[in-house]
Amino acid sequence: MRENNSPESLKKLLESTEPEYLQQSLLHALPEATDVQLSALATLLASVSKAGSSPKHCVRCHKKFYENRNAQDSCRIEHDGREDGERTEIGDDATTMVEACCGLEYDGDDGCPTQFCIIAAHTTDPEEVEYYDSDEEGNQNVVTCKEKGCTKKKRKAPPKRNGSNSRTKKKQK
Ligand SMILES: [Zn+2]
Ligand SMILES: [Zn+2]
Ligand SMILES: [Zn+2]
């Protein structure tokens, strides 16, 4: 069984396992775990524990979030309710509605298919966010922290650009 301990085989196992299954398995194993196992797990999960106790500020929706609870659909921005209708075709009853905020078009009879302009993962990296630009198209609800006024509120720790940490954080492809 030795070879199951190699980083390669553990990597393979982790990568091929659904996150939920992994979580459940660990939860089930906890009551039986020895002190040594528990402290090993705690060590391995140190970064998760840290992420769960240090809130970040999302530069898209401007809400507080925790990285370990940041799902692909955590960051949501609602339409701001300024929709407008137009006859789909002249002489036809059907209307096409357009949300002024994001330009989403939908059939007036069906109603808006989603409550949100944007559903994504929270981020701290402004480069990942498509901000509204009055010259170009874009979503009027998506503004920078500066425009939103977040920056005034003790928002320290500007994103580290030239890596003090050799690993570049993003780049998970
Ligand atoms: Zn967000
Ligand atoms: Zn919208
Ligand atoms: Zn902000």
TrEMBL record:
Protein name listed in UniProt: Uncharacterized protein
Species assigned in the record: Leucogyrophana mollusca
